[in-house]
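Thread: "does anyone have the structure for this chain?"

Original post by V.I.:
We have the sequence but no experimental structure in hand. Need at least a predicted one for the grant figures.
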Amino acid sequence: MKYRCVFVFITSLMTTLVRAQTPTPVPVVDEPYHHVKLKNEQVVVLRVTLAPGQQTGYHIHSCNRTGVELTKNTTANQRLGDAEDAPKAYSPGDVFSDACDGKPLIHRVRNAGDTTMDVIDVELLQRPEHPSTMSAVRPVAENPSMRAYRWVLAGKYFSDAYTHASLPDRCGYAHAVEDECAGWAIAKRRSEGG
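Reply from O.Q.:
Generated one for you, tokens below.
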């Protein structure tokens, strides 16, 4: 009887310790390093900035997404339950795209380098009814919900629809092109005061 009580106590203590060590993932919009810049019924745009050595908490991406690296950085990715991936180097203008259909991406990111990581992440909350059959140019990244393109404009030119903001102190809400940051920047619609 004495050994059974000790066994039950040790088992419940171990269960409590394991639960305390298991991280609880949060929706990406609730992760402290992911700052919502725009959210509506169709899209959420996030800006993620990590100083060297900083790490996000585990968070959940449940929508198809694409994004662009704004700075030269080195980061390591770790999916929940897996070992951390080897650090990978990125340059301004590098684009990524993930399809999360049916299985959300649950991970955390660590800045493994000596420069600040700065990323814009665009997540599509509503998938288009039909995929586009037209493409202006070859996409640099795509998933079933969206495509990312790269256009290079000379100087500080802008189209009628968008003005281009300077990086890094002003961020807008949609991918656009700017010569200042290896061809990528963030733009705001003029009607939104950009």
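V.I.: this helps a lot. The longest helix spans residues 2-21.
O.Q.: and The two ends are 74 Å apart (CA to CA).
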